[in-house]
Write a structure and sequence with these properties.
The protein is of the alpha/beta class. The protein folds into 2 domains: 34 residues, no CATH class; 135 residues, Rossmann fold. Helices cover 43% and strands 21% of the residues. It has 8 helices and 8 strands. A 6-stranded mixed beta sheet has the order 3-8-7-4-5-6. Strands 1-2 form a two-stranded parallel ribbon. Helix 2 packs across helix 3 and helix 6 runs parallel beside helix 7. The radius of gyration is 21 Å and the shape is elongated. Pathway: Porphyrin-containing compound metabolism; protoporphyrin-IX biosynthesis; coproporphyrinogen-III from 5-aminolevulinate: step 3/4. It is an enzyme of class 4 (lyase). It catalyses: hydroxymethylbilane = uroporphyrinogen III + H2O. Belongs to the uroporphyrinogen-III synthase family.
Length: 201
Amino acid sequence: MHVLLLKEPRDGDSGPDPYIKELASHGHKATLIPVLSFKFVSLNTLSDKLFQPEKHGGLIFTSPRAVEAVKMCLEAEERREEWKSSVKDKWNAKAIYVVGKATAALVRNLGLNPLGEDTGTAEVLSRVIIEREDTNIPPLFFPCGSIKREVLPTALRENGVPLETLTVYQTAEHPDLEKNLKNYFTEALRLKSCGGCQVNT
C-alpha cells in the first residue's frame, strides 16, 4: 500500500522520519508532502531575551520550530561561546518546560535540561507548571508561533503564573503544496492505469 503523509518532515539531522520508517517496516511505501512553511521573526528580540535569563523564571517550548529559532540566535560564534560558557547554565538553574519528545531532544541539543517531555499536550504541561511554580516568580518566557493555541497562556494566567510570550515564527501554507499534490496524484493515476508498472523515461 502507498501512503500519503501530509505533515512537516523530521529535521534532516535527526534521522529518517519516524512515520516513513514505521510504515516501511510493515511493507508500506510512503510519500511525505509538507503542508506548511515557517518564517522566523523577531529574532533580535528573542536573542536579547535569551541572553538575559535573570529577567525570567524559566523557559517554555511547545514546538520544535521555537527551539529552531533559538538555535538561529546562537549561530554567531561569539553568541555561541557566551551561551556555552555561562548563559545556558543560568537557564538550567531554572525550569525549562517542553511538550513532546521531539522538542525535548532539540532542547537537549542546546545544552538545556527539559522538563515535561512526557506531557504530550500544552494542556497537561500547563498543569505541571501550575503545580511547580509560584505566582511571585519572574515571568516564564514562552517563544511561540503565530497560531499557537491559547490553552497554556490562559491556564497560567487564570492561576496567577506570570508569562511573557514572543512570536518567533509565522505559519503559512507551503508554497509548493498544490504543485506537489498535483504531481503526486498525476503519478499515482499513471501507475494505476498501467497496473503499477514502473516506466523509465
